[in-house]
Write a structure and sequence with these properties.
single chain; alpha+beta; Glutaredoxin; seven-stranded mixed sheet; 11 helices; globular
């Protein structure tokens, strides 16, 4: 898959942080925590919904796609005529389809190549397609993030109830300890400011997800891709999700401890040192949520998705429908314990932590330069 792995994006992000420190010392520092900056400014990358057809779509099929464009979901729709000229990439994807019945739909991960795994393939059908774009767990995930939670720690269960229950309890205890060591940064008056009236607070929650839940098949597949090295593992995984549904890598069960969880928590709650989403680790999930409801009537500067090719890709407009304020009972059963701490001041410990990360990234740059010079010789 051409989508950069979580580990690779982490390294890239750290190199970007180093570059900011060395080449732009006069730039304004962003003291907004990563999780809040991501919620307010990082537009979710669109998943590509490719509709393969022969000639023009019929009225009924066009109506299905037109209804989709009215939903607040991060997709871009592209129609491809298999009887005409196709791009090499779409031709390769179409060639790999088996038993396809036109019109045929392929849902692709953001920024993925022709050999990348697909989220879903199937005949164009309103119900089947809707199941790929939304689900109960995804609605609950979006609800919590829109409420201002710092991070939702999704526990993708293994299916072994005893092991999964033990891991959930361990994660809950670990998050409580880690949260007690974190203090959110003070927002500097001379830097970027919060755009939303949501209270800024440290709040973690756990959302358990069964791999066998057929309603969540698409979400399970997306979460496994968050860390390619663990994609084929049948063991339980813990995936921190922030912002507008950005899954930041994944933790295998042995790494669910103060060190493993703490590293992610410190990153999520630390200053947003690199404001470019693509230079941060993670992959955006496919969620049906109107993220702009947090702004009310305010007009603010935010990252926006790229403009689609005219006549080919249909961008999904922003909906004015707010997310529900309460979750169904079935979803409440999946929710773990909430851990909340009010906004507090920035401490010296984090300054040393960030300094250590910067120095480590600088060492990577220096060693890479030395290695390149030696290779040239």
């Amino acid at each position: 898959m051409s989508v950069m792995s979580g580990r690779a994006k982490w390294v890239t992000g750290m190199l970007a942080v180093t570059a900011m420190f060395f080449v732009a010392p006069g730039a304004r520092a962003c003291t907004i925590p990563v999780f809040r900056y991501a919620l307010e400014r990082w537009a979710a990358s669109p998943y590509e919904v490719v509709v393969f057809a022969k000639g023009e779509l019929g009225d009924a099929d066009r109506a299905v796609l037109e209804e989709l464009t009215k939903k607040p979901v991060n997709v871009a729709i592209r129609t491809v005529d298999v009887s005409g000229d196709m791009s090499p990439e779409h031709a390769a994807i179409w060639k790999n389809q088996r038993n396809a019945q036109l019109p045929w739909v392929v849902v692709r991960f953001p920024e993925s190549g022709e050999q990348a795994p697909l989220v879903w393939t199937g005949k164009l059908d309103k119900t089947a397609l809707a199941e790929q774009l939304d689900s109960p767990a995804r609605r609950e995930l979006a609800r919590r993030l829109l409420a201002g939670q710092s991070c939702v720690w999704v526990l993708l269960e293994s299916g072994d109830k005893a092991k999964d229950d033990h891991l959930a309890a361990k994660l809950d205890e670990t998050l409580k300890r880690v949260a007690n060591t974190i203090e959110l940064p003070e927002i500097a008056a001379d830097g970027p400011q919060l755009h939303s009236p949501l209270p800024l607070k440290l709040e973690f929650s756990i959302l358990r997800l069964a791999r066998t839940d057929t309603r969540e098949a698409a979400l399970v597949k997306m979460l496994r891709v968050a860390e390619p090295e663990l994609a084929d593992s049948d063991e339980a995984l813990v995936i921190p999700v922030v912002g507008r549904g950005r899954a930041i890598s994944a933790l295998a069960a042995p790494r669910v401890n103060d060190q493993g969880v703490g590293a992610f928590a410190q990153f999520i709650c630390g200053q947003c040192s690199c404001e470019v989403k693509e230079l941060n680790p993670g992959i955006d999930l496919l969620l049906a949520a109107d993220w702009n409801v947090i702004f009310g009537d305010r007009q603010v500067e935010r990252d926006e998705p790229a403009v689609a090719e005219a006549g080919k890709s249909v961008p999904i407009p922003v909906s004015t429908i707010a997310m529900p304020t309460t979750a169904p009972a079935a979803i409440d059963a999946m929710a773990g314990t909430y851990i909340s701490f009010e906004h507090s001041t920035y401490n010296m410990g984090r300054q040393w932590l960030i300094g250590g990360i910067v120095l480590a990234a600088a060492a990577v740059l220096v060693s890479g330069g030395i290695a390149l010079r030696a290779r040239r010789k």
